[in-house]
Write a structure and sequence with these properties.
The structure is a single chain. This protein has 149 residues and is of the alpha+beta class. 34% of the residues lie in helices and 27% in strands. It has 4 helices and 6 strands; from the N terminus they run ααβββαβββα. Strands 3-2-1-6-5-4 form a 6-stranded antiparallel β-sheet, with helices on both faces. A hairpin with a 5-residue loop joins strand 1 and strand 2. The two termini are 27 Å apart.
Length: 149
């Protein structure tokens, strides 16, 4: 199912609309098409600050518009440069709760010229839904997004 979305992601990336609009379309597509993607958003490094700033997203509004490096799953990925899959958010000590309905999270860093400049963050209300297929697919998404940043 995820593989069938690859072509749609490429089509969005190749549009002539501005970057923010294309990122918003990707968030909305993923949230709509993947049943267990309940919140999909991008966070980007906030200038030279050691923090992430919320970019386009699809899902419930969040208070977490700024996340310091090291804090929560997103903040940890900003430092580790590694994918982070959380099958059960209640088992994570350094988890920032966005909603009581969230059961799992996956964060995949976004690299431009080898530098971690942001990430895609997905919350799921389904316990332990993410597989290696999700990781590979989201790595594909971030690689495509990097082409327009």
């Amino acid at each position: 199912m995820l593989d069938s979305l690859r072509e749609k992601i490429v089509q969005i990336i190749e549009q002539k609309s501005d970057v923010t609009t294309r990122l918003q379309e990707i968030c909305e597509l993923l949230k709509k098409e993947v049943a267990y993607y309940d919140w999909v958003g991008f966070y980007f490094r906030n200038g030279e600050k050691e923090e992430l700033k919320l970019g386009p997203y699809a899902g419930e509004p969040t208070d977490h518009t700024i996340i310091p490096f090291g804090k929560g799953i997103c903040g940890q990925v900003a430092l580790s440069n590694q994918n982070f899959v959380v099958p059960d958010v209640s088992a994570q000590d350094n988890y920032i709760a966005c909603s009581i309905t969230v059961k799992a999270e996956i964060v995949v860093p976004l690299f431009v010229d080898g530098e971690n400049i942001g990430q895609i963050d997905i919350d799921s209300n389904t316990p332990d839904p993410f597989t290696q297929d999700d990781e590979r697919f989201l790595e594909f998404v971030t690689a495509e997004v990097a082409k327009i940043l």
